[in-house]
Amino acid sequence: MDDVVGYNQTAQTTSPKYRENPTGWDSEEILYLKRIFELRLVVCTLGFVINIILLILQIKIRSFGRTQYVFAMILTISDIIHAADVFGETFVLRKTFKEPAYWFGAIAFASGLLSYLSIVAVAVDRYLALCAIPFKYKQVVTIKRYWLVIAIMFVFSITCSYIFLVSVSYKDLHLTYISLIVSTTLITLTCTVYIRLAYLVSISLRGMKLPVDIKRQRHTQTTRLMIAFATILGANIVFNMPQNFFGVYIVLQPPGNRYNVFKHLSLGNWMYNVQTINTCANPLIFWHQVLVKEIQLPLFSTFCKDSRTPNSQSTISGCLPSAIGGSRSSSV
């Protein structure tokens, strides 16, 4: 969900003129840039580990078999791919100070596009469940069909990435403008679709004529999910767009100041580090907003067991959040 266009300011500023140490750089500047790279490696490692943990927790609650959570699982997978890709790219830069292979950018493009598709898919699923076909949802929407949609999303992301890879020269200055246009277009379309669908879902939730308990449970579950992904979408904008605007700023500089001014290179890499933090932010947002309510914490379940009396009719599920304690049929 991160670098939508897949290639970043680091790759641009280290391409033709940074194959060797630029004239005028001293050892302290070289060391400073290496420290920036090392910090990015740390961020990528944290993002990879956090997303792996989140993926394990999602498997624990069987997200792969629940229609309302399967696209969140795909978002986690896309963040894992992106964190690993940026780690490899940065490792090459840190070691050789040479331009990394183009396929690093292609993978970043595909993972970024996949993350946006996943966010939209969550809103579409809730729209189908609560607005479009609320009474036929379980008959029409099945997990097998959703996995088919996911396969199409993967193929579409890879195809777009390949087209972008073979049709755009990474040494062309127009790449920066293309990057900004692609990023802005994806974010605008995603926000427009998501906000519209979220509005329709909120109206549907208010107009539901269901028993109070079921209505409250469905309202809480859907609201948590929609707010979580709205926050994730906002985080993508905050972390990603400054990097693209800075790329335009670099291109607007005189030719002699584009790539061999140390402050430009260091600032561009700092912005890329900030952008990479998004791989850590996404899983933490989803955990805080949604997953913590879905998982039976050992300490909490122990408390529930200890609180039961021999004659009590209460069960452990009664102590758990409704999404776990209730019936699995409440996946709508």
Number of helices: 14
Overall pLDDT confidence: 76
Strand content: under 5%
CATH class of the largest domain: Mainly Alpha
Name the structural class: mainly alpha
Name of the CATH superfamily of the largest domain = Rhodopsin 7-helix transmembrane proteins
Just name the CATH architecture of the largest domain. Answer: Up-down Bundle
Low-confidence stretches: 1-20, 296-332
Oligomer: single chain
State the domain count: 2
- Could you tell me how far the N terminus lies from the C terminus, measured between alpha carbons in angstroms? 26 Å
Shape: elongated
Supply Rg: 23 Å
Tally the beta strands. 0
Taken in chain order, the helices and strands follow as HHHHHHHHHHHHHH
Major β-sheet profile: none
What helical percentage do the residues reach?
over 70%
CATH fold-level label of the largest domain: Rhopdopsin 7-helix transmembrane proteins
Pfam families: 7tm_1 (PF00001)
Organism: Holothuria leucospilota
Protein name: G-protein coupled receptors family 1 profile domain-containing protein
Keywords: Cell membrane, G-protein coupled receptor, Glycoprotein, Membrane, Receptor, Transducer, Transmembrane, Transmembrane helix
What labels would you give this structure?
mainly alpha, 76% helix, Rhopdopsin 7-helix transmembrane proteins, 332 residues, elongated, G protein-coupled receptor activity
